[in-house]
Amino acid sequence: MFIDLFTDYTLRTIALGAVLLGLTSGVLGCFAVLRRQALLGDAMAHAALPGVVLAFMLTGSRAPLILVLGAAIAGWLGALAVLAIVRLSRIKEDAAFGLVLSVFFGLGMVLLTFVQRSGSAGQAGLDKYLFGQAAAMVMSDVVMIASLGALLLSLVLLFWKEFKLLSFDPEFAASQGYPVRRLDILLTSLIVVAIVLGLQLVGVVLMSALLVAPAAAARQWTNRLSTMALLAGTLGAIAGVVGALISTNARGLSTGPVIVVVISLVVLVSLLFAPERGLIWAWVRQWRNRRRFSTRQP
Amino acid sequence: MSMQLEIQIIAALVAATCALPGVFLVLRRMAMISDAISHTILFGIVVGFIIVRDLASPWLLVGATLTGVLTVWLVELLTRSQRVKEDTAIGLVFPLLFSLAVIMLSGLAGGNMHLDEHSVLLGELVFAPFDRLTFFGLDLPRAIWINSGILLLNLLFIGLFYKELKLSTFDPQLAAALGFSPVLLHYALMTLVSLTAVGAFDAVGVILVVALIVGPPAAAYLLTDRLSLMLILSVGIGIISAITGYWLARLLNTTIAGAMATMVGVVFSLVFVFAPRYGLIRRLR
After folding, report:
1. Interface predicted TM-score of the whole assembly (ipTM), two decimals
2. Of A171, A220, B46, B146, which residue is most buried, by most CB within 10 angstroms?
3. A4-296 belongs to which CATH class?
């Protein structure tokens, strides 16, 4: 299967797309995890669905850029709706997330049935946004992923210091005169773009996992943000390509669930065996201490 | 009874059942746990089906409910290990269990299991009247029996432990100091949420369970300061959203579950803007 990677054009396209998507969502996921926005990611991914379908209904085009644009606008509206509900009423964040993700998703499903009923050629292409379908990726998708991904990563590099400060100590950043609100909006926008790019690989239902899991795994191995971002990007890329190849080879298997299982295994191993934070070592220490103290007693 | 009426009764029952435990989730700031539970119960249903090979078996309900409670426990275990924060823990646990379920489901596809990725997301409310059960000489859809049973259980639990729930929701420290076990009450509530989600799952699917659990209580929270009134209003708002959602779906010839969630959004937006004391207009004036 892995030899085919270098000979088979379709497989190579899919693998390339999966690597790029895993990389971008892995890197940006670090900020989402550190800023405790894991559930915001879930809400935005679900909120993107009506955007994808509406973009298709309005333009009749399945061009990747148009669908991604629709998804990004809807994802952004979802994030804004959460913000508005929390700011302008006494409802708390958790309820705002739940409300926005389920209502936007319901609306998206309603729109999707319209498209399916009209029986136009696009319906098969839109279905993949639910659970992801790597096999449906073509070269034009990969080109778009590569260019938008490069833009995202270079912006992260450019604003590295600012984003780092924003994630760890926003009050201090504000006191030093950084435009915290605008930086916050920029970082959230980058996360939105990473999410909507990943949709066609993982689907709206499971996208938050591709965002959060690589970062959570990487966090266990290091205390440095730069190392964490590099590691999360790598782990995301590996999980992406392994999941994409497995699901492409097995008939009737969606890509999203396979990727999630692969990356979850990586998280489990990291949680248990990472050198300093690993739970196994903590248990061993605890057991040793307990034995030492119990033998000292007469 | 006509099929249309039966579908509406099921929709209203599900909405009322979801709204009751939803009130406590919203007040305890745990709304997103319903998102996690509604996803992972699928894992319990699929594993249960593989073991008993019967989609109508009551063991499936038990297994699925236990999986929901297991999810809450896993999230707490991960959070307590202090290796990840709570939101990340939720975001790790439910996608994994849900993914495993979807993969097993596609392995089973082609068999006699009428579950697929689409009905998982949207439920099968249209077909619910075909699946019938006769009890006490009454021939009704299975969904009506199951969901009214769960509704009764919810009412019974909230009725019996109203004081305890109220105290531990608004002042957990005092509740613990007075000797109520917050852990026990918490897990009892989680079991109830889980059971409720399992009952609603057949009708409205995974994600729209969240709309019915979170939406009506959130709207009711903007209308009143009294817990008892909030419970009643939530049930009312849930039923209104469900019935209007059903007619919207008929009108537009689209998915009932999706239309119901859309109506939850519409009703919430109206309340959000026009609520007499906590609404947007009042706030901006």
Report:
1. 0.92
2. B46
3. mainly alpha
